[in-house]
Amino acid sequence: MITVSIMLATIIQALDGTIANVALPHMQGSLSASTDQITWVLTSFIVAAAIATPLNGWLVDRFGLKKVFLVSVAGFTIASVLCGLSATLTEIVVARMLQGVFGAALVPLSQSVLLDINPKEKHGSAMAVWGMGVMIGPILGPSLGGWLTDSYSWRWVFFINVPIGAMAFWGIWRYIHGEAGARRVRFDMFGFVTLSIAIGALQMLLDRGEQNDWFSSIETWVELILTTMAFAYFIGHTLTRPAGTTFVDFRLLKNPNYVTGLLLIFIVGMVLFATRALMPTMLQGLMGYPAMMAGLVTAPSGLGTMAAMLVVGRLTGKVDFRLLLGAGFAITAFSLWQMTGYTLVLSESDIVWPGVIQGVGLGLVFVPLSAATFATLSPQMRAEGTALYSLVRNIGSSIGIALVQVLLVQNTNTAHESLTAHINGTNAALQDPASIYSLATQAGAAMINNEVTRQASMIAYVDDYWLMMLLTLAVIPMLVLIRPPKASSGPVQVDHAAME
Length: 500
Known about the structure:
Structural class: mainly alpha
Radius of gyration: 24 Å
């Protein structure tokens, strides 16, 4: 019952990262907002969640896990109601910020609880359950959001959280016991402020960079300077203070498994979310897929991930972490290699099967990586460790999405110039006035330009898939840095929760 309760909380937070995306055009008309203004509905949630995530470790130490979890679920659910009732853009942006603040704790705390209530030999299965909850967001979010918006209204994208949040709140209140983590801990205000500014400015830069044309905008430069200066102050402050008195405990970074896990989950976040961001735009923009069909052909990748997680959950602890991770990264790289062969002429199976294979590979990576990262971390540091783990994954996804979008635009322009250089008057077909591609007519020239743009965009998408594949292959040698955990003897300590 603890598992069911905390996974309900995880699911609503994971869903809200993507479920509102497809409803933005409807919100824009209802709230009388411009295209630039309505994106703040997404940006406010992302930035608020990123700033609040590192706070989870201190809150659990100070107030106890159960209280923090209950307040987070209640706050997130109430903020969802406020989002659905919003009548102006300002109201929904403030409500989304509250969603981000309260929702930031749900994913890392659910991971911490699952590790606490399960013995070490069951950590693989526990992380499989947690991974499936986290993966539901990017898989079901767009499809569920589209169905709710079309069938009812965009407000139900938020109202659907209310019954789920209520069940999660009751389950956590009823079944989680023990406040062993509650103690008086001094709050490092300077560390929190500088880290918050750094993370908030970085997320703003990545989220708004494309629409601001990146470094041609003063806003982007301001965000870069704020990120650099705040992070430098945070590092200097943390390194010059005694261990255990800073906002982020750097003793976490003395654990080789944990540090390697952070780096690998950063890459996984980049590859997973960047690929999922590329596919829908490629299918709808270049191949004319309607939104529903694009969702149907990409959804099987999530099924592959879930199936792999169920299997690997039973293997974790019996098979070396590094073998499972190596197999997962290799399978993911193979699927991306298949995507590098994409053209403008694809069947549904050409899209579905590489997606399924990629889903299987990521499923093989996600579970053992989570288990390996925390295998040698003391239970007392799990709350802070899971918060930092979630933060790094989210930053990786933001950087990955921004990176592929930048390269997509640049490589499209480069490929367009290269292809245009081969279009000249020496081709007789291009001079025939009866041809739809005739340079002699304005309509023909426009048709040629449209086709060249489509081909150039396809080349740019393929270039992005090559990059994702090379990044995936590059992390495989790093698996040697992961140390298998020593066999534990005696009973496993449960610090924050006890199963009734």
